[in-house]
Write a structure and sequence with these properties.
Blueprint: E1 2-4, E2 7-13, H1 15-32, E3 39-44, H2 48-56, E4 63-73, E5 80-85, E6 95-103, H3 107-117, E7 123-131, E8 144-148, E9 154-155, E10 171-174
Helix pairs in contact: 1-2
This protein binds xanthosine-5'-monophosphate and magnesium ion.
Magnesium ion binds at residues 43, 46, 100-101.
Protein name: Hypoxanthine phosphoribosyltransferase
Main location: cytoplasm
Pfam family, one: Pribosyltran
């Protein structure tokens, strides 16, 4: 159990289960990208631990790069627009694997993928550690999903509450 500010978080997914699932995802990626040299695009900050553990099990040659997503209010009614920061690699013709911590409404990853698609990659797939199907607002093709979870706020293993709590080997859930 962890208390951060006014909120209490209780155990949800144990470190051993996370690591076992990541090994399975890596095995799948190794098979499906055999003969290719994908560019792994890690969405910071949340995906840093997932990406690091996943990468250790990848046996295919791959490049790894890191992006941040900045939000700003759009002038249109669509709400928030996410802008990609930090991407310096050429994307055209590459096989991209976008690595996220969690897909909740799906709006963030959808906008990131739309912007990457504009740069004409050869292919693009998404690897997310967590997925909340009940919160999804956007039709998305999620290729690699660690765990489908219920629509509750989670923390740890990269995910934060108000900037805190990213540094746990387990995932916890708001009590
Ligand atoms: P969307 O809704 O765009 O959200 O798919 C994606 C981003 O929102 C954050 N997020 C969470 N962070 N616990 C967290 O610590 C959660 O349960 C949670 N749900 C969404 C996260 O930054 C993610 O990339
Ligand atoms: Mg995130």
């Amino acid at each position: 159990m962890i208390t951060i500010k006014d909120k209490t978080f209780v155990p949800f997914i144990a470190a051993e289960s996370i690591q076992a699932r990541i090994q399975e995802l890596a095995d799948q990626i190794n098979q499906e990208y055999a003969g290719k040299q994908p560019l792994i695009v890690v969405v910071l900050n949340g995906a840093f631990l997932f990406a690091a553990d996943l990468a250790k099990h990848l046996t295919i040659p791959c490049e790894i790069t890191f992006i941040r997503v900045a939000s700003y209010n759009a002038t249109e009614s669509s709400g928030t627009v996410k802008q990609i920061l930090g991407l310096t690699e050429a994307i055209e013709g590459r096989d991209l694997i976008v690595v996220e911590d969690i897909v909740d409404t799906g709006l963030t990853i959808a906008q990131v993928c739309d912007q990457l698609q504009e740069k004409h990659p050869a292919s693009l797939s998404i690897a997310t550690l967590l997925f909340k199907p009940a919160a999804l607002k956007k039709q998305l093709d999620l290729h690699y999903v660690g765990f489908e979870i219920e629509n509750r706020f989670v923390l740890g293993y990269g995910l934060d509450y108000d900037g805190l709590g990213r540094n746990t080997p387990d995932i916890l859930v708001l009590e």
